[in-house]
Specification:
With 217 residues, the protein is of the alpha/beta class. The protein contains seven helices and six strands. Helix 3 packs parallel to helix 4 (106-134) and helix 4 runs parallel beside helix 5 (155-175). The termini are close together.
């Protein structure tokens, strides 16, 4: 995605305060893109802005909760008011609770579906007019091998990630005539990320995608 110069391009990333989202932000800025990102932890977002600014890049952020659909439409409005265009959308925000279905709280089920699936759908819809204007453009949805391979105690997480894969495949067909590429990245986070510590993925290390590999130019 960042193999060539991205001078003049604008990228929007959710869940960019740490892990893979942060790596995407730094790599895209290094390739010349203006980066705008969102997460719930403002102090970490500010750290990334400072890191990119020190390296000579241009970046900004907006604090938002991706579980609240109207905030995603507001997020795109804020981005366009500052940068006037959008070329790359990366839906990276995600979380998981691992437990038998009988033990999952309804609030945990709702949070996974809203964060891992609904947010990507709503943000794609919110951003689509801007992406159409700047085509050729890109949508990247960060999914997981859990979207293809179910495992015990991961029922709802697997369902959300499977839905994201299906959504991306259908969206790719729908948007191909408009010269917008929709891509799903199937990964498991490294053991050094907060998500890994919280969710304890079961994939063997050889199949886990390192953050620097996913974001590498």
């Amino acid at each position: 995605m960042a193999a060539q110069s991205l001078e003049g391009k604008v990228a929007l990333i959710t869940g960019a305060s740490s892990g893979l989202g942060r790596a995407f932000a730094v790599e895209l800025a290094g390739a010349g893109a203006k980066v705008f990102w969102s997460a719930r932890r403002e102090e970490l977002l500010h750290e990334v802005v400072e890191e990119i600014s020190r390296a000579g890049g241009e970046a900004a952020y907006h604090v938002a909760d991706v579980r609240i659909a109207p905030s995603l439409f507001d997020l795109v409005d804020v981005l366009l008011s500052r940068f006037k265009r959008l070329d790359i959308l990366i839906n990276n925000a995600g979380l998981g609770y691992r437990a038998p279905l009988l033990e999952l709280k309804r609030s945990e089920i709702q949070e996974m579906l809203e964060t891992d699936l609904h947010a990507a759908i709503y943000l794609c819809q919110a951003a689509l007019n801007a992406l159409l204007k700047s085509a050729p453009s890109d949508i990247v949805n960060i999914s997981s091998f859990a979207g293809l391979e179910g495992f015990a105690e991961g029922t709802v997480y697997c369902a959300a990630k499977s839905g994201l894969v299906g959504f991306t495949r259908a969206l790719a067909h729908e948007l191909k005539p408009a010269n917008i590429r929709a891509t799903a990245i199937l990964r498991e986070a490294r053991s050094t990320t907060a998500f890994f510590e919280r969710f304890r993925p079961t994939l063997e290390p050889a199949r886990r995608l390192a953050v620097e590999d996913a974001s590498a130019r």
